[in-house]
Design brief:
The protein is of the alpha+beta class. It is built from 16 helices and eight strands. Helix content is about 50%, strand content about 10%. The relative contact order is 0.12.
């Protein structure tokens, strides 16, 4: 029997098919890596800021409890506390020109009473001893420790709308980074524990070492990071509005209306415009109006009795009506979402016009409320804070290691981006997938279109830029 020529084996349909399959897989890998690379280079600095500020903000109760101990706790617990109306009256008498807009009552006997006040147009937090009514401290509500880190976390260091949009953009791209990163991490050949689920640490400082420091923690933390990022998106400016609109249009947030009597009020004012300490699910509830102004407004102490009667648990905030048709808002965004409550109360009759609890939320309202509590480290106490801290530290490590990897492989005078695959079908196919992601996350879609325009109109036409962005030879 004659031997089959070697050339015939090389050119056999089976081998050609295997080569085409291998080439196709490599093209997908290269294209995925290219998207992962550019997104990481651009957004890693923002993610480091978000992770750092978020990690600090997680421990707001402990840090502020130490920094502002003299304001947040009383020097001596008394035998009986003053009523809220007595505290407000004593405060306005002691500080002429002060208007109290809300008061927060706590469930701890040593805790002070916080009041949101306005004095000469400036908004301040005033902290009163519940037993004497004396003010123990006054702080500008925008200059507290938590306000600084909250602003850094929600608006970076830039502030305003631009900062908020950059945070949302970075958060959305972080989800894409995690998905593409998992694809790149997935073992393509013979699987091994080392470099896959355990890092290879035998050669500190090597490119392999930093690759594992980057990829292995990202694998272990990927699900946790996606949950944390996704649970923060309801607060975002663009996607958050879409999430809220979807939840309300499908009645999966709160019921169409939740009024004890009367028709649903036609109001352009929503709860977040007038009240403090609101759960996310009720921030856009329309605010009813007090029915009649022919009576004397109720005392705030009556609202405290209403809270006790209707099982609204401390701590909670009472926002006072600021006009004749205004209402009392009794609300708590509780550390345990199951105890959330939002009530609007007629300031003259005491009738409850709105009463929405966690049990009234729809599927999205409940899920988002739990997600936000987890995101803020409140859902299961210190353990929740520590889990969030591990995620934040891990994200910082992942981002820093990515830059070290890049510097180690970057050619002189070039960006060092992965080469673009020659298979145009793969490139176009993945671009379509990315644009679909962009349709779900509008700022991502906008950023992709901007990059495509920059590439076609500027980078490809300016030689130094074209050279710097050209891929390294491999």
């Amino acid at each position: 029997m004659s031997a089959i020529p070697t050339d015939s084996l090389k050119n056999s349909p089976t081998n050609n098919g295997k080569r085409r399959e291998s080439s196709f897989r490599q093209a997908i890998y290269q294209s995925m890596w290219r998207w992962h690379f550019y997104a990481g280079i651009i957004f890693a600095p923002f993610l480091i800021i978000l992770a750092f500020s978020g990690g600090v903000y997680l421990f707001k109760p402990q840090i502020e409890g130490y920094l502002y101990k003299d304001m947040l706790t009383v020097r001596e617990v008394g035998s009986s506390a003053l009523s809220p109306s007595e505290i407000i009256e004593k405060t306005t008498n002691a500080y002429p020109g002060t208007t109290i807009s809300s008061i927060t009552l706590n469930d701890l006997p040593e805790a002070t009473i916080m009041m949101l006040a306005t004095n000469n147009g400036a908004s301040t937090n005033m902290y009163a001893d519940p037993y004497t009514g004396n003010i123990l401290g006054i702080m500008n509500s925008d200059e507290t420790f938590s306000a600084f880190f909250k602003k850094m976390h929600s608006e970076l260091v830039i502030g305003g709308t631009l900062g908020n949009r950059l945070v949302e953009l970075a958060a959305c791209w972080a989800i894409i980074l995690l998905i593409t990163g998992l694809f790149l991490w997935w073992p393509r050949n013979k699987s091994s524990i080392w470099g896959t689920i355990l890092p290879r640490l035998s050669k500190p400082g090597s490119r392999m070492f930093w690759r594992d420091i980057h990829a292995v923690p990202a694998f272990w933390l990927s699900l946790l990071l996606v949950i944390l990022i996704a649970s923060g998106l309801p607060w975002s400016g663009v996607l958050g509005g879409q999430i809220d609109k979807l939840a309300n249009s499908t009645n999966t947030n709160t019921p169409p209306y939740a009024y004890s009597f009367g028709e649903k009020p036609q109001s352009v004012t929503v709860a977040k415009d007038i009240a403090e300490d609101l759960p996310w699910a009720t921030q856009n509830l329309p605010v009813p109006i007090s029915i009649s102004s022919d009576y004397i407004p109720l005392n705030i102490d009556t609202i405290v009795n209403t809270a006790a009667k209707h099982n609204v648990l401390l701590p909670y905030t009472i926002t006072l009506p600021q006009e004749e048709a205004g209402v009392f808002t009794l609300s708590t965004s509780h550390i345990k979402p199951g105890k959330d409550a939002t009530l609007h109360i007629d300031q003259y009759s005491g009738a409850i016009l709105t009463d929405v609890r966690y049990a009234d939320y729809g599927v999205m309202g409940k899920a988002i409320s739990l997600g936000i509590a987890f995101h803020e480290g409140k859902l299961f106490g210190l353990a929740n804070q520590l889990v969030g801290l591990i995620a934040c530290i891990g994200l910082i490590l992942i981002a820093i290691s990515s830059y070290i990897m890049w510097k180690k492989r970057k050619p002189e005078g070039k960006l060092g981006a992965p080469s673009q695959p020659k298979n145009k079908k793969v490139t176009v196919g993945l671009l379509i997938i990315m644009l679909i992601c962009g349709a779900l996350m509008p700022l991502v879609g906008l950023s992709i279109l901007i990059v495509l325009l920059l590439d076609s109109l500027i980078i490809s036409r300016i030689k130094p830029l074209r050279h710097w962005f050209s891929s390294e030879k491999r």
